[in-house]
Amino acid sequence: MNSLEELKQQLVDGIRMLENIGHIDFNGHFSVRIPETELILINSAEASRSSLTIENIITIDLKGNLIEGTGRPPNEFPLHTQIYKRRQDVQAISHTHPRWSTLFTIAKMPLRPVIIQGAVLGTIPVFSKSHSISNIEIADELAEKLEDNHITLLKSHGAVITGYSIVETFVRSVFLEENAQRQYMASQLGYAHSLEDDEIVSMSKFIWQPRNIQKVWDYHLSKLK
Prior knowledge:
alpha+beta, 8 strands
């Protein structure tokens, strides 16, 4: 990413694509670290996710203070800041409200890797409190639940997805919902069988490569444009 404006535009694209595929609606947020700073970019609370522009991206610090831009951060900004404080490897975070994945938390059924894209998801813990993650205390609990994983589901609420980049984080959201939908649909026919352990290892290495990750991003970006 060559400039701050380009990083903002990529974040805008990611948010609009998440809205376009139904992972967020009038709520939901996506953030990214500004490299070599203690600041993050995030969409403002008031902005429409479907018509977002870079003017709707604000800069906040890790205490939630507005540093640059117009508007206020989402109420759940602690969800982002507390994970960033704990996880130096995380560069981007999305909070989505996915339909299929959330069903599994409501039914208290484990989400398992049933398609090859599901092999890359890793362990998916479930945060058992059905609350808005809008204060430091509950955000700290969530960050602790996430541990070293890239995804956690929020009971009857949504998902938190992290990555080393905006692109990675978006693609994880896509794979999470694809896997959840296929698991649910297969369960209507009978038992939805998980991938075998050796399949998970081999498929995750095969799929989670830069060219494959970028291909998913480019596909959804072309539909948005």
